Amino acid sequence: MALDNRTVLARLQAALPDAILSSSEFRGDLSVYVRPERIVDVARFLRDDPELRYNFLENLCGVDYLGREPRFEVVYHLLSFANRHRLCLKVGVSERDPSVPSLTELWPGANYHERETFDMFGITFTGHPCLDRILMPEEWEGHPLRKDVPLGAEEVAFTFNQDRIYAHKPFAKE
Amino acid sequence: MGIEQKAGDMGIVTASLEQVVNWSRSNAMWPLLFGLACCAIEMMGAQSANYDLSRFGMEINRASPRQADLMIVAGRVSRKMAPVVRRLYDQMADPKWVIAMGDCAACGGVFNNYAIVQGVDEIVPVDVYVAGCPPRPEALIDGIIHLHEKVRRMRLDGTLREPVHLS
């Protein structure tokens, strides 16, 4: 069965009209902006609907649009094996309360993706079984993929400034 | 030379203990079997048949740090990997040496960011730095030969003799 974006959107809007904020299409790919508190309902509908059957959560990630409100976005990519069709869901997350309902009850594979998004952006996923850091060391402070984290870690040593830098560099002892 | 000639027919060679120890240390220096990134591919190339690192008595990579003498840090060390590298170094038996292979291990290389240690000398004391991104096997072998020369200059109390330059 061939599935086109218009059918998907119409079906989604008919089932959950209050959950959909807006939608856009870019080069044939459909993106749907969803209310954060309804993301689980939308995802469950898309997964369990007998015609849509988006049974696979390909990935989810965070995006930081610094200076915009809401500042963060969480992006979900769904794939329907049966229909060979992809769908992108987007959720706006404010900086004051960066939390989104977790999708781990629908797809256990969302577990590590949500942990990475938490690690990199500080977005918490309510209902997640174990929301720990996954990539950064445990004692790390902050969330490194936020745009307001400084880029460079250390000043680069050249011949003209190496004496000053090496004087403070914590060289290892035996 | 006197006693060697006299004792030659008895099969005895004399040398200073220091020389013998350094000779055995530098000619059977077993590296620790671990690689962190793309430099490890060049390290494997140096150890395989084309470049044949076993010419220098280094054909055995030891998978256990207890049996290894040389740590070749081949690749970038992430901040999360840093305690592991230090722990491996601590588990190696003395005497032990470290080669920082490649730009990333030497100074962070192109990765000047939050994730990568800016030079593995912040974690372990480095004896030889090998430049390159990644260094060719020849460069690694050159670094190893430099390290062997350094080992041969070592006194028994651990201090180093001045290098002898042949012009």
Concise synopsis of the structure shown:
The complex is a heterodimer of chains A (174) and B (167). Chain A has 174 residues and is an alpha/beta fold.
Shape of chain A: elongated
| Strand residue percentage of chain B | 5-15%
What is the top-level CATH class of the domain at 38-152 in chain B? Alpha Beta
How far is it from the N-terminal to the C-terminal residue of chain A, by CA? 67 Å
Task: Work out the helicity level of chain A.
Answer: 10-25%
Name the beta content range of chain A.
Answer: 25-35%
> Strand order across the biggest sheet of chain A?
1-2-5-4-3
* Gyration radius over CA of chain B: 18 Å
Structural class of chain B: mainly alpha
Counted beta strands of chain B = 3
Total helical elements of chain A: 4
Mean pLDDT of chain A: 89
Number of strands of chain A: 7
Structural class of chain A: alpha/beta
Topology as H/E string of chain A?
HEEHEEEEHEH
Spatial strand arrangement across the major sheet of chain B: 1-2-3
The tally of helices of chain B reads 6
Radius of gyration of chain A: 21 Å
What is the helix fraction of residues of chain B, given as a range?
25-40%
H/E element sequence of chain B: HHHEHEHEH
For the record, the count of structural domains of chain A works out to 1
Commentary on this structure:
Chain A is of the alpha/beta class and 174 residues long. Chain A has a single domain (5-142), classed as 2-Layer Sandwich (Beta Polymerase, domain 2). Chain A contains four helices and seven strands, in the order H-E-E-H-E-E-E-E-H-E-H. Chain A has helices at residues 5-15, 39-48, 110-121, 162-168; strands at residues 20-26, 29-34, 56-64, 72-80, 85-93, 99-101, 124-126. A five-stranded mixed beta sheet of chain A has the order 1-2-5-4-3. In chain A, strands 6-7 form a two-stranded parallel ribbon. The radius of gyration of chain A is 21 Å and the shape is elongated. Chain A starts with a helix and ends in a 6-residue tail after the last helix. Chain B has a three-stranded parallel beta sheet. In chain B, helix 4 (82-91) links the parallel strand 1 and strand 2 (97-101). The radius of gyration of chain B is 18 Å and the shape is elongated. The model of chain B has no long low-confidence stretch (mean pLDDT 86). Chain A binds chain B through residues 135-137, 140, 144, 149, 151-154, 156-157, 169-174, and chain B through 79-80, 86, 107-108, 112-116, 118-119, 121-125.
